[in-house]
């Protein structure tokens, strides 16, 4: 079976989408740069030309509007933000326009727009170059949010996002870009709204997504050595949330740890906790719901602070163990 | 207007301080001593130096990701800057900001933002406050040609002009926005012409001619001090190093060695040094003494940064507390 890195899987998805559907257009800062978006767009401009692969000026809000307009007029736009942090500049077009259009005009129009935002953090880049904003976008009605953890899902979810017909925020993490996995050739879809159980277990469910999945898998290995059987649930899609999968897993294990790479307050982990708490299942839990996330503080620069800012496998494993001792 | 020998020497020293500091940082990044992404100012020294020479500590300067030159020109402490670049607790932002986020409350530099164009309206806001409190303080926004692509630039210029605020917009046109040449991102790359549309007194000058920058800056600052309104100065310059880090971006195919060589031949420091020596304001011996003195100061800054402690990891608890 053929293995690709995560970045190669994205590159292949983009190439296939551009190749097989001439409505597809890729626009966003750095798609022709040698470093901006890693190697995810390598070779595309040469192959498809600068009318379908567009590296625009630094004008996030305006360019987002342009991508929306092109989508309304028939294109399937993929709009890339080399760092999610810059999506804040485009908030008006994303939230007021793209997200609302379909409902606000009685369903007369769809905005087939994939908004691809990349989390790019670590390396002492500090608060404006580190953010993971899944919760912000998941809060907005009219947006779907997907967040793959591996190359297979990334390729399949990117294809699903472009074919969805309504705005989808597709979130990548640069820390995933060099991870390898088996990726089938050709076009295939991973359904939006469906999570996956990556590892079955019986003592505790750990619900997570994106890069954090890999820290959780390592923590699960560590816990297994201590006789704890961890079930790992990869959300893959943040919104619509796969509640059925989450509730099924928690019903089975009776314990839950939610690990999210975003901030805690009013975030993804809180939403998942609420989904559990809203059902009778809450009375059957053997331990309180436990959440691990970033501290509610801007990302610091210094490595010494970054080391404690991001949840790592040691902290996750310790949290799981404490929960089982309780 | 004749510029005194004393002022000329001051300009020379400031430019050398920036140059030697940046070149040391480049070396330390290459050696892996420094991790935080550094956008070096080498080649552009005349701009920050020429403008800030007419500013006081109670005037504001707002900066960008390419921040070191502005901090040094505004009189910031090299030790605190180097410590910030080492992300140590003694840094000007306590190691929380890194190279792109530097600050000096005592020298009138509230901060530098890594969001392109982010500080342009903020500088206008500081000018709004200055105009409200009376006095003759001014505010300066430094930004690159890339920032001219952002909506915030236009909104800020319009408001400043409308309200006649004491702000000076200084656009450092170094011909590139990351990997992109300015002609590929601006339909009208003659940037000062764009500012003219907002009825701002605007000009384009040789940003490598520190005297020209000094005189133009002084006139704009005087105008703002007299509350006659904002001005716009486009300084044509070039960054020697690549967009980020110590390399030259020639290897990446972004620009040619020939273009880089042409600009390096227009070294703003060499040009001033030549003039000073010709005018007998400076001897070669004095010039090298200045350089040695600055190098020693930088050695001290590096030693200070290296022996300073990292922020203690329980500081994260404090930050968490601050933002709860
Ligand atoms: C809003 C936003 N978009 C994109 C970026 C990425 N970025 C960092 S620097 C830069 C180019 C800035 O060019 P310019 O303003 O000319 O300044 P220079 O780097 O040349 O000094 C870009 C696009 C950013 N930091 N912020």
Quick overview of this protein structure:
With 326 residues, chain A is an alpha/beta fold. Helices cover 37% and strands 20% of the residues of chain A.
Question: Describe it for me?
Answer:
The complex is a heterodimer of chains A (about 325) and B (about 325). Chain A has about 325 residues and is an alpha/beta fold. Chain A has 11 helices and 14 strands. In chain A, strand 10, helix 7 and strand 11 form a beta-alpha-beta unit. Chain B has about 325 residues and is an alpha/beta fold. Chain B has a single domain (about 5-320), classed as 3-Layer(aba) Sandwich (Rossmann fold). Chain B is about 45% helix and about 10% strand. The relative contact order of chain B is 0.16. The mean pLDDT of chain B is about 95.
End-to-end Cα distance of chain B, whole Å, is: 55 Å
Rg of chain B to the nearest angstrom? 19 Å
Bound molecules: thiamine diphosphate
Helix content of chain B: 40-55%
Major sheet strand order of chain A: 3-2-4-5-7-6-12
Q: Supply the number of structural domains of chain A.
A: 2
Number of strands of chain A: 14
Query: Could you tell me how far the N terminus lies from the C terminus of chain A, measured between alpha carbons in angstroms?
Result: 44 Å
Largest sheet of chain A: 7 strands, mixed
- The CATH C-level class name of chain B: Alpha Beta
Helix and strand pattern of chain B: HHEHHEHEHEEEHHEHEHHHH
Q: What's the helix count of chain B?
A: 13
Mean pLDDT of chain A: 97
Report strand order across the widest sheet of chain B.
2-1-3-4-8-7
Helix content of chain A: 25-40%
Estimated structural class of chain A: alpha/beta
Broad shape of chain B: globular
Instruction: Please state the second-level CATH architecture of the largest domain in chain A.
Output: 3-Layer(aba) Sandwich
Q: Report the CATH superfamily of chain B.
A: Thiamin diphosphate (ThDP)-binding fold, Pyr/PP domains
| Average pLDDT over all residues of chain B | 96
Structural class of the secondary elements of chain B?
A: alpha/beta
């Amino acid at each position: 079976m053929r293995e690709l890195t995560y970045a190669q899987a994205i590159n292949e998805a983009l190439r296939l989408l551009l190749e097989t559907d001439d409505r597809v257009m890729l626009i966003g800062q750095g798609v022709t740069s040698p470093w901006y978006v890693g190697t995810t767009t390598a070779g595309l401009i040469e192959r498809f030309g600068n009318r379908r692969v567009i590296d625009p000026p630094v004008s996030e809000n305006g360019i987002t509007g342009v991508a929306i307009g092109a989508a309304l007029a028939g294109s399937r736009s993929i709009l890339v933000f080399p760092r999610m942090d810059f999506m804040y500049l485009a908030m008006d077009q994303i939230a007021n326009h793209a997200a609302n259009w379909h409902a606000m005009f009685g369903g007369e129009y769809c905005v087939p727009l994939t908004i691809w935002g990349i989390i790019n953090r670590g390396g002492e880049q500090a608060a404006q170059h580190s953010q993971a904003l899944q919760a912000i976008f998941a809060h907005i009605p009219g947006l779907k949010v997907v967040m793959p953890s591996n190359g297979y899902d990334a390729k399949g979810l990117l294809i699903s996002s472009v074919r969805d017909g309504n705005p989808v925020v597709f979130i990548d993490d640069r820390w995933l870009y060099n991870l390898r996995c088996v990726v089938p050739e050709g076009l295939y879809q991973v359904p939006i709204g469906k999570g996956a159980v990556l590892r079955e277990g019986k003592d505790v469910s750990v619900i997570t997504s994106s890069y954090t999945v890999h820290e959780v898998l390592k923590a699960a290995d560590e816990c297994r050595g201590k006789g704890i059987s961890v079930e790992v649930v990869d959300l893959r899609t943040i919104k619509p949330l796969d509640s059925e999968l989450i509730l099924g897993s928690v019903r089975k294990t009776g314990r839950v740890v939610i690990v999210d790479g975003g901030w805690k307050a009013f975030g993804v982990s809180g939403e998942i906790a609420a989904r559990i708490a809203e059902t009778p299942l809450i009375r059957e839990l053997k331990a309180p719901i436990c959440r691990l996330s970033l501290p509610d503080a801007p990302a610091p620069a210094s490595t010494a602070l970054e080391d404690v800012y991001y949840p790592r496998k040691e902290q996750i494993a310790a949290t799981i163990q404490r929960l089982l001792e309780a | 207007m004749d510029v005194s020998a004393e002022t000329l020497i001051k300009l020379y020293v400031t430019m050398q301080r920036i140059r030697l500091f940046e070149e040391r940082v480049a070396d330390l990044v290459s050696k892996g001593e420094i991790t935080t992404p550094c956008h070096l100012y080498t080649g552009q020294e005349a701009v920050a130096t020429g403008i800030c020479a007419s500013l006081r500590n109670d005037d504001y300067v707002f900066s960008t990701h390419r921040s070191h030159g502005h901090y040094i020109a505004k009189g910031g402490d090299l030790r605190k800057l180097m410590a910030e670049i080492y992300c140590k607790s003694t840094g000007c932002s306590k190691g929380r900001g890194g190279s792109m986020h530097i600050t000096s409350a005592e020298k009138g530099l509230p901060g530098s933002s890594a969001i392109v164009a982010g500080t342009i309206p903020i500088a206008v806001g500081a000018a709004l406050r200055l105009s409200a409190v009376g006095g003759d303080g001014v505010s300066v926004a430094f930004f690159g040609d890339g920032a001219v692509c952002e909506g915030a630039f236009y909104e800020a210029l319009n408001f400043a002009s409308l309200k006649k605020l004491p702000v000076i917009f200084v656009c450092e046109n170094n011909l590139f926005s990351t990997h992109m040449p300015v002609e590929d991102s601006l339909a009208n790359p003659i940037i000062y012409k764009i500012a003219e549309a907002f009825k701002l007194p605007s000009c384009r000058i040789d940003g490598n001619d520190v005297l020209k920058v000094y005189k133009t800056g002084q006139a704009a600052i005087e105008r703002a001090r007299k509350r006659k309104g904002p001005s716009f100065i486009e300084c044509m310059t070039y960054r020697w190093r690549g967009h980020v880090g110590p390399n030259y971006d020639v290897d990446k195919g972004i620009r040619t060695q020939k273009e880089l060589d042409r600009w390096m031949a227009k070294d703003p420091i060499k040009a001033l040094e030549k003039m000073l020596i010709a005018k007998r304001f400076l001897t070669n011996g004095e010039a090298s003494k200045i350089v040695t003195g600055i190098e020693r100061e930088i050695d001290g800054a590096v030693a200070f940064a290296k022996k300073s402690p990292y922020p203690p990891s329980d500081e994260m608890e404090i930050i968490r507390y601050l933002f709860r």
